[in-house]
Amino acid sequence: MENLLPVMVRVREQKVLVVGGGAVAHQKVVQLLECEALVTVVSPQLGPELTGYKDRITWIARDYREADLDGACLVFSCTDDKEVNERVFRDCQRRGLWCNVVDDPDHCRFFMPSVFRRGPVTVALSTSGLSPALARQMRLYLEEVFDDGFGLLAFALGHLKDAIRSALPTIDQRREFMKRVWNSAVWQALEAGDLPTARRLIGQILETVSSARRGDRGSYATDLGI
């Protein structure tokens, strides 16, 4: 079994080509627009799902040509024509472009995981192309486990990221801090939507771990304005 390298790709304001205009292409377009990609769709017609997106994409109303790849950073081929899909893949291979041919793992340089988001937290699941249906079912299960509190916690920690790195310079210290946050009353504050209290509690934990490192009880949280 081949091991795949999981990556998070920045596509904001980057051209991404989608070949095909049907329901599957619509799914890819929606995901790409969520990431602020510049989406170009090549297809003689657009299905009803994509029609409402014409003002948000560049639609080239004809069959695929290799020149459509110019400037693209990623390519999706979503047609029901095997010959076209294989041609898109071969053209991408020649140019060193990452290409995903939907429902054809042998013609994919990358796979799209099943994804859900909680604010800045992204959870992505993949079966390496073996069973997208299983990946979807796992996503549905985990969506019940990961509530909005995880996203709120990421926002709160992001607000203090520089302060945390300054106060806790080693990985072991930051891991200890995170373990204490994880097992604290911060979750109750987040569940109640009380971000100020969550930030105050996080600041107190940072103070405790930082003081242990310094061997004193200085008011680091006060210095942070928490």
Q: How would you describe this structure to a colleague?
A:
- The protein has 226 residues and is an alpha/beta fold.
- Helix content is 46%, strand content 14%.
- The protein is built from ten helices and seven strands.
- Strands 3-2-1-4-5 form a five-stranded parallel sheet, sandwiched between helices. Strands 6-7 form a two-stranded antiparallel ribbon.
- Helix 3 (82-95) links the parallel strand 4 and strand 5 (98-101).
- Helix 5 crosses helix 9 (195-214) and helix 7 (171-182) packs across helix 9.
Largest sheet: 5 strands, parallel
Strand content: 5-15%
**Annotation, overall tally of beta strands:** 7
Inertia-based shape: elongated
Main β-sheet, spatial strand arrangement: 3-2-1-4-5
From the structure above, extract its key features.
14% strand; two-stranded antiparallel ribbon; 5-stranded parallel β-sheet; elongated; alpha/beta; single chain; 7 strands; 226 residues; 10 helices
Write a brief caption for the model:
The chain contains 10 helices and 7 strands. With 226 residues, it is α/β, with parallel strands linked by helices.
